[in-house]
Amino acid sequence: MSELLDFYKNKTVLVTGHTGFKGTWLTRILLTSGARVIGYSLKPPTNPSLFKMAGFEDYEKKDQLMNVIADIRDLSKLKESFDKYKPEIVFHLAAQPIVRDSYKNPVYTYETNVMGTVNVLECIRLTDSVRSSVIITTDKVYKNNEWIWGYREDEPLDGFDPYSNSKSCAELSVHSYKNSFFNEMDGSDGKRYCAVSTARAGNVIGGGDFANDRIIPDCVRAMENAVKSRKTEGVIAVRNPYSTRPYQHVLEPLAMYLTIAYKQWDDLSKSSYYNVGPDDVDCVTTGNLVDLFCKCWNDFGTNLAKAKWESHADPNGPHEANFLKLDSTKIKTMLGYKPRWHIAECMQKTVEFSKLFIESPESLPGEMDKEIKEFFRRL
Ligand SMILES: NC(=O)c1ccc[n+]([C@@H]2O[C@H](COP(=O)([O-])OP(=O)(O)OC[C@H]3O[C@@H](n4cnc5c(N)ncnc54)[C@H](O)[C@@H]3O)[C@@H](O)[C@H]2O)c1
């Protein structure tokens, strides 16, 4: 096991949003590293769901995974879990994370993403056992000027749509809690030690995402329908083929969330605000990304339906930024971040995983462990 994963052995870690796409992968990494995990979330947000297929039953039976299904907006319920389980480390991922849904329900999005974050910060403040926490926001927190260069951590926070903006507000609430409370908790003169950072990651791809209105799940759904209805071809509808995004494999930001919590455990100077984006070569248009999906799918050498895509650009659709890149120099310099799987390799893994989902879903827990092992071997 790597030094990083070794650190988590026997630690008590609270993960909000553990039933979601990234949360399920993070929970699996922590459990296989020997951590005790308290998951706090609503039920899985999708059907099918990676959480339900991830084979966590054995961990629940031996009380290594505690599964609390509850709302992040409910402060007293959240505090109960902090009081009962006394976590040492907190990863906050629970959110309403879909831009289009935030246009349909902005109030719910703000309540969950802003007050949910404030509730987590408040529980961290009031729970002496917590020593290291990472609050997950997004690359969309910045005021988007459609620049061709990447945003840096000190650029203005002012996301355009309700999702992005709620995450900008979540960032600001962390700033206030740090200034008002956590910066003083530096372990000096008998004071408590408590390090809190935020992480702003780019769009993630990987196996097991089934969310609506995300491009890879749209590809997988189109191909699953084609395979199940025995068609020879699946056609993927692409809404924004010309928008450029920083794409990375889901394990890249998760490894960095784990690294941040580990490095700041004993060193408060590492507690900060971090971009976690891919290298420039992996910032591609959605059209390029789907080209790659189709190529990997069609080259994979099975007799499943062939993949192709069509543009379904909607000029009347809600506003989404055209161009978005992150500058990740800070986390590279301070924490040694080095993106490991470039986009072709990410897509290969995603397609392999998606084909397993269609053909033999019972093999997914083993596939997750295999990818985790392969990825962390490179750290
Ligand atoms: N997926 C991406 O490309 C991406 C990119 C950047 C940042 N992020 C951020 O990463 C985090 C996880 O994203 P994801 O893709 O796994 O999302 P997801 O929708 O798969 O999971 C969201 C999780 O939050 C929980 N949740 C939602 N509302 C809740 C509430 N009111 N109370 C308690 N739990 C609630 C859900 O039950 C689920 O466990 C989010 O904070 C998201 O904003 C995601």
Automatic annotation (TrEMBL):
Residues 14-350 form the NAD(P)-binding domain. The keyword Lyase applies. Transmembrane segments: none annotated. This is CDP-glucose 4,6-dehydratase. One of its GO terms (molecular function) is CDP-glucose 4,6-dehydratase activity. Its EC number is 4.2.1.45. It comes from the Bacteria.
